[in-house]
Structure formats: structure tokens, C-alpha cells
Amino acid sequence: MKYEAVIGLEIHCELKTKTKIFCGCATGFGAEQNTHVCPVCLGLPGVLPTVNKRVVEFGIKAGLATNCTINKYSKFDRKNYYYPDLPKNWQTSQYDLPIAEHGWVDIDVDGEKKRIRLTRIHMEEDAGKLVHSGTTIKDSATSNVDYNRTGVPLLEIVSEPDLRSAEEARAYMEKIKAIMEYIDVSNCRMEEGNLRADINVSLRPAGTEELGTRTEMKNINSFKNLEDAINYEIERQQEVLEDGGHIVQETRTFDPARGITLSMRSKENAHDYRYMPEPDLPPIVTSEETIEKYRSELPELPDARRARLEKEYGLSDYDAGIITSSRAMAEYFDAVVATGADPKLAANWIMGDLAKNLNEDGIDITKSPVSAERLGKMIGLIMKDTISGKIAKKVFKEMWTNEDDPEKIVKDKGLVQITDTGAIEAAVDAAIAANPKAVEEYKGGKKKAIGALVGQVMKATRGKANPQMVNKMLAEKLAD
């Protein structure tokens, strides 16, 4: 029997506020354990929380950016459960009246667009962090608790079960990450836990509508782990079903070192949490004027920016998609083009040599040693035929460790392209005289043989000859 995967994500997005959601404690990452805490976020008796207004603003902006309806009346609820990282024994969250619901985003997988529906976006406080002695909770002898993260504001973005593969789930999470970065509500640093996902996976016979029993995997904080966990879980569930077994509704953990999921506990339902309205916080009432004010503050979003790059600059759908996949890269591209650089050349250099060097050094584009202005100037030298594309690669490599402008590097290294007809003609004549076999093959109809001659000219001129002039001159001379 052929099975179809049904996948939904609950993405937890940590907001970039200076203070926590219900108190004045700092939210900075990496502080000494249990130093960013106070009686309010620790839930000590007699304390009263107050809502951080910025969290509400960010929740509304996230809803608007994902095509949600903003609820003008929403409230906080207590989600009751016991776990060591939850000092109050309940999490202040939202249940039946979230800040935003019924939205959607579009994703691209293998050149095909698909719309993924959002069930809701709600505000909540984060729990603390268990610090395990081993690699996962399953192989740890002890676990300590750091409450610094307790009360850090989160948005939980819940999708409908519209995803059908690990590739679609990754594309969806990448799109949510891009949107949150564009509207500047989160740093989205996955390695710091700013963005993480709970994954719900079930299988059903292909062609049927009824949902199968689902399992949930918690706190996946990298795109690779997201894909690996989903692919393993699909394979595991399929084996169970094909062997005549039944899937158990449970929460599982993903072990990235072994690439497998492991059972943790039975999965709770909403009624297990005994939701109740939060008595210490008033409802959130938002006017239409406030919603429209926040809408007017939204920047150009990824899909709109992508369409603009295709229309204004003629970029391909693929190139525009890569460039707009992060706000930092899109802004870098715009800054390069603002120098007068050809947009297609700018896209090629950003996606090619720049991306390669950033990956090798493990740094973000915002930390690039080659600024957008300097890259734009280098592309300008290519456009003016001062240097060839091949020489530009040498210049770019030098720019990575040298703060000089590309013009100075080209001058100091003697890399100016030879466009003098006489100098090129002498090198062309020498190449023809020294390679009679290649000449004979070319004249005999083997047109690719000209490549060997071009190579000889470029070698003789140390790569400085203008390649277009070399090709044109060789073709003319060999046609005689």
C-alpha cells in the first residue's frame, strides 16, 4: 500500500525585545545561568505580570505579514502542565482567542508554487532550558535547569497539515524565517534557539482524506535536522503500518547524531492542559487604526521583493528567489546595484563567489569583508572592460583579505585587461603559428578546437587579454 505523509509545523519564533513578555528582565542570549530572572518570571507568590506592548505589536505585524486576520479582542490563557523547566507549573499562552488566525504563505518546491495555510499565530512565554549531561534527554544521567529563557516572548506559528514532504516543510520554515527577518521581529538565529519547530507527522493511504495517528517531534532547530527527522519518521511509520502495527500518538525526540527519533512520552491533547483564562492579565483590545498603523510600517516582503527584482531587473525566478531568501542578502544586492552594477552580474557574484567564501568562513553576509559598495565597484571594472571575469576572480579573492578598493588592487597587481588590438594580435598570431594541429582541426569543422588556441593566448597574456576580442580575432584569422 502506498502512503501519503501529512505534516504540520508549530514554529516557535523568539521575539527581539529587550525585556521579557511579562516582566523587566533582560532577554539577552548567553548570560550566566539563572541571572536574568525575577519573582515575576519565576512565578513566586504575590507577583503580578504586565504585558510587554512591543510583543503585541510584533504579533500583529507577524499576522499581517502572513495574511492573517487580526483579532481585535484576544486574551491570554494558562496552559497547565508540569515540567522542570516551567517554574509556575503553567505557561501563559493563548488558546481560543489568539492575536491572529487564518493566514497563508506561498512556498516553492522544485519550481512549483504551493499555498500553505496558517491556523493561527499566538503569543506566549518561553519555558526555561534543561541542560543535559548527555547529548539528549534519553542518554543523560542528570539535567540542570536554566531559567534565563523563562518568560522570553514567543510567537507560535501553527500551520494546517498541508505539507507533504520534508522538502516542503523546509521550504515553509525557510519562508517563515525570511518573513520574520524582513519585518524585524526576530533575530531568527536557529543555533541560539530563536527559531525552532515542533513537527507533527502522520501517514494515510494515498488518495484518502482521513488523517492518520500523528507523532510530534519537539524543538528542532536546524533545517537539516528538520528534513532528517521528518524523513526518518515517515520511514519508521511506514514500516510499522506495513508490518500490521499501529502508530501510537506520542511525543518523540530526534537524535541528530544517530539520525533517528526516540519515544519520550504519550502525546497530550488540548483538554489535558486544562486551559483557563489568565486572571492576572486583561484582554488585549486592538483598534482598526492601530492595525492599519502597523500595516503601514511593514517593509517590502519577500514575495513582493522577488516580483520586483524579476520585473525591474529581469532576474530569473530562481535567482530572485535566492536573493530575496533573506533580508540581509536582498539589501546587499540592492546596495550593489545602487553603485551602477549590472543586476544580473551582481546576482551571479553574490550567489557565486561571495556565497562560497561566506560558507567557507562560516559567516553571515552582514559580516562580509567585501562590502556591497566594493563589490559594485569591482563589477563596474568588468563592465568597463578594465578587467575580465577571470581576472575579477583573482581581484575578488584579494579583496577578501585586503581592504583596498578594487581599482587599487587591479593597479597594484598589474591586472588591467589588455584591450590593445596590436598586443592581442601578436599573441593570436603566435598561438596560430605554434598550434598547427588545432588550426587544422578548426578549419576541418571541429569548431571546439578554437578553445585550445584561446587558452594559449590567455596563457601568453597571463589572463589579461580581453576574451571576447581574442575569440573574435581568432575566428576572423582562421576564416581566411
TrEMBL record:
Residues 331-478 form the Asn/Gln amidotransferase domain. GO terms for biological process: glutaminyl-tRNAGln biosynthesis via transamidation; translation. SUPFAM superfamilies: GatB/YqeY motif, Glutamine synthetase/guanido kinase. Its EC number is 6.3.5.-. InterPro entries: Asn/Gln-tRNA_amidoTrfase_suB/E, Asn/Gln-tRNA_Trfase_suB/E_cat, Asn/Gln_amidotransferase, Asn/Gln_tRNA_amidoTrase-B-like, GatB, GatB_C_1, GatB_Yqey_C_2, Gln-tRNA_amidoTrfase_suB_CS. It is an enzyme of class 6 (ligase). PROSITE patterns: GATB. One of its GO terms (molecular function) is glutaminyl-tRNA synthase (glutamine-hydrolyzing) activity. The keyword Thylakoid does not apply. It catalyses: L-aspartyl-tRNA(Asn) + L-glutamine + ATP + H2O = L-asparaginyl-tRNA(Asn) + L-glutamate + ADP + phosphate + 2 H(+); L-glutamyl-tRNA(Gln) + L-glutamine + ATP + H2O = L-glutaminyl-tRNA(Gln) + L-glutamate + ADP + phosphate + H(+). Keywords: ATP-binding, Ligase, Nucleotide-binding, Protein biosynthesis. Allows the formation of correctly charged Asn-tRNA(Asn) or Gln-tRNA(Gln) through the transamidation of misacylated Asp-tRNA(Asn) or Glu-tRNA(Gln) in organisms which lack either or both of asparaginyl-tRNA or glutaminyl-tRNA synthetases. The reaction takes place in the presence of glutamine and ATP through an activated phospho-Asp-tRNA(Asn) or phospho-Glu-tRNA(Gln). Heterotrimer of A, B and C subunits. Belongs to the GatB/GatE family. GatB subfamily. HAMAP family: GatB. NCBIfam families: gatB, PRK05477.1-2, PRK05477.1-4, PRK05477.1-5. This is Aspartyl/glutamyl-tRNA(Asn/Gln) amidotransferase subunit B. It comes from Mitsuokella multacida DSM 20544.
